[in-house]
# Entry
Amino acid sequence: MKRYAVIAALIGVLLLIAGLIVPLWTKTAAISLDPFAFKMIVLMVIGCFVVGGGLMFLVFYSARKGYDDRVHHGGGHGPDREL
# Structure
């Protein structure tokens, strides 16, 4: 029963997103951009994925190597602790 609720919620969210995107897409379809502008948009999207992927890699790498354990468990360096 819970699985069906999750699937129904996902379908509802996808329909909501589609309902918001389709009207905007049709209104902006008449706007003409230079090929240079499209290239810049594609480069921006790729750059966002690269930066986001790099940050996620750093988070997982840091967690895997245990760099966060000292701070998370109260063993970090503070003004009252010796180095």
